[in-house]
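Q: How would the structure tokens look for this protein?
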Amino acid sequence: MMQDWNSQRDSLLAQVRDYAKQTPDVLRKLMTIEDATIKINQLEPK
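A: Here is the predicted structure in token form.
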């Protein structure tokens, strides 16, 4: 079965944008956690 990856990606990005608009504090804190783990070299950045 062929999938249209571009439309799937666009749909996912739209959903993330909607979530970010509804809960900006949560995403800000998740980004803070991600930055902290990179600084202490426990996780490699993607």
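The longest helix spans residues 5-22.

Residues 5-39 form one domain.

Upvote if useful.
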